[in-house]
Design a protein that fits this description.
Rossmann fold, alpha/beta, Arc Repressor Mutant, subunit A, single chain, globular, 34 helices, 6-stranded parallel beta sheet, 5 domains, 7-stranded parallel beta sheet, about 725 residues
Length: about 725
Amino acid sequence: MTGILEMTVGADISLTDYLKKYFGFNTFKGSQEPIIRNVFAGNDTFVLMPTGGGKSLCYQLPALILPGTAIIISPLIALMKNQVDAMRNFSLEDGIAHFLNSSLTKAAIQQVKADVLNNRTKLLYVAPESLTKQENIDFLQKVNISFYAIDEAHCISEWGHDFRPEYRRIRPIINKIGPSPLIALTATATPKVQHDIQKNLNMLKANIFKSSFNRPNLYYEVRSKTNATKEIIRFVRNNTGKSGIIYCLSRKKVEELAETLKINGIKALPYHAGMDSATRSETQDNFLMEDVDIIVATIAFGMGIDKPDVRFVIHYDIPKSLEGYYQETGRAGRDGGEGKCITFYSYKDIQKLEKFMERKPIAEQEIGRQLLLETVSYAESSICRRKQLLYYFGEEYLEENCEACDNCLHPKTQIEGKDYLVKMLQTILFVKEIFKAEHISIILAGKASSDIKAYKHHKLEIFGWGNEKDVKFWGAVIRQAMVTKLIEKDIETYGLLKITQKGHEYIKNPVSFMLTEDHEYTGIDEDDQSGGGGKTGVVDEELFNILKDLRRKISKQVNLPPFVIFQDPSLEDMAIQYPVSLDEMQNITGVGVGKAQRYGKEFIDIIKKYVEENEIIRAQDMVVKSVINKSGLKVYIIQSIDRKMLLDDIANAKNLEMNNLLKEIESIVQSGTKINIDYYINQVLDEDHQSDIFEYFREEAKDESIDAAFDELGKDEYTEEDIRLMRIKFISEMGN
C-alpha cells in the first residue's frame, strides 16, 4: 500500500516519526512505545492499561508499519465499526481497515477479502464467532498475518466481568490458521484474570506491560439507594450541558429512567441490546455528536466508545463485579478532565443478582457469588475507595487520603484495631488458611451457620471469641488487613485467605492499627415502593392535619367519603414533599393526572400558603415529573377492560392470580383513571347486592377498609372479591 513503510521486524526506526505521520501525535503516552517495540520484536505481549490510556494505538501503529495484515479480534460490532472508521480517517484509502462479521452482505464480504488478499488492508477486525467459521479459517490461511491482537481480552476469563465462551476458543483457531505473535489487551484484569488469560492463550511467557490503574481525575462516591431517580435528576440538572452515562442492569429500568429524564427536560436516550442495531447506532452517534447529553444504558453501551469528555458515570444499579464497575466508571474523564462516578447501592440489588444466578450452573454461581462479595465489600467499606479498587487489581496505593472519594472527603470515626486484627489473623491460622473471608467472620462472631457446623467449627475453642462484634464488623477488619497486605486471597483457589510474611510479623509484633467501621446503607429499591413516590423526610403533622380538614370539607361539598378524594398515604406524602404545582402534585403517591386536576388546586393553594407563612425550605426544590404509569401490564388491563374482556381471561392471559389483577385495577383507579367494569360486575352480582355495597361506600364507610365493609354487610352474603369489585366501581365513578 502506498504511504506505508514495509519494514522488517527489529529494524532500527524512529517510531515517533511514524506516530506523527499517521496519528498526528508528537509523543507516546505511558508505556506505548516499549509495547510497540515488543510487538516489532515478534514477542507475545500482554497489555493491562486503564480506559483512556491509549491501548488501541499499541496495535494500530505496528499494524500500519509491519508487512502483512494484523488480525484484531474484538467482541462488539459497534466497537469494530468505530475503530475501522477511526483508522480510515488516518488514511486516503478506505481499504486500510475492514471488519469481517455477521452484519456484512455477501458482496461486502467479497470486497473485504479482495482488499486483504491484495495487501491493501493493514487491520482486519474479526468477531470471535466469525473467526471460528471454517470458510474464514480457510481464507485467513491465505493471508500474510503480521500479528494477532486480542482486544478486551478479559472476555476470555470466567473470572472476568464480561466472560464470553467463544473467546476461549481463540487459541486453537489461531493454531489452525497459522501462528503469529500475539498481543492481548484489556483495561481491567485482576491477577486471577490476568493469569487465566495468559494460560488460555498459551502466552505465559509473554512480556507484560502493566500501567497504573489509578485514574486520579475520577471522583468515586457510593450513595444509599433512596429516591435514586430524584437524586439523579437533581445531579444532572446541577451539571447541565455535561455528557453523562447512567447504567442500569435491566432494559425495563433503562427505558423507564430515560423517559423520566426526558419529561423532566433532560436530553436523554435509552440504549440496550434489545433495540435494533440501527437505533443503537443512531443513539450512539447522537451522543458522540452531543445531540443528547445523557445515555441511559445497560452494559451493552460504552465498550470502545471514544468520547473523551464524559463528565459523569452514574450506576443506578451496582454492577455484578468490581471489574465491570471499574471499566464502566473508566468511561468518565478520559481526557484527564473532571469525571464523577456516583453509584447507588442497596443490598436488595445484590439479593436480586444472587437470585438471578440460581439459574446458572453451579461453577458459574460460585464465581458470580465471589465477584458479588467483592462488590459488596467495596460499596459498604469506609476506607479509601481508590485504595480498595487498586488493591483489587493488584496495585498498591500508598497515599493516606486520595481527596477524591466520599470516604476520604468525609471520613468515618476510626477505632484502635490492634487486638481485633491479631484475633482475626490467629483465626485464619487456626483453620489452616483454607477458608474464605465470610467463614472467618462467622467463626469470630460466633454464628453457628450450616457451613460452620458442617466443618464442626462451632466446637472450636476460638469459636465466638470476637462475639462482641458482628459478622459485618469482622468483614471490615479482613478487608482492611488485605489492603494493607497482612493477608491475601489465593489466586488459584479464589477467595481462600492466606497470611503474608508481613502478617506473620504483625502477629509477633502487633502495633497500633486504626480501623474504620463499614457504612450502614438503608437504601430502598424504588421498584419495591408502593406508589413509586418515596418519602424523603418526616411527615409535617401540622400540615397533615390541615390537609385532612380540607379533605373533610371537600368530601362534604361533593357528598363523597374523604378517602375517595385522597387516601391518607397521599396526604402524608404531600406533608413531606410540599407540592406547590400540578406537576408536583402528580408526583405524589397515589395521585394521577385525573386526581390532580380534579382536586389538586385547593390542596396546592393551601400548601403554598403554608410553605410561605412558615418560611419552609423544601427538600424538593425542583420539579421532578413522574412518567404516567404506562407499564405494559397496566396498559394491557385498561385496553382489555375497554374491550369488555372477562377479568378471569385477563388474569389467565397475564398468568396472574385474580387477587393480583384486582390490585392492579385498584392501583389504576386510585391514581385517577376512570374505568368501567359494569359488564363483569353484572355477571357476578345482581342489582340489589350491587346497590347495597355501593350505598355502603357512599353513605356509611369511614375509610376504604374491606374488613369494615364485611362487618357492616355480612361475610355470609358477600365475598371479598364482590366488595373489591364494587369499591373499584365506586371510586372510579364517584372519585375520578
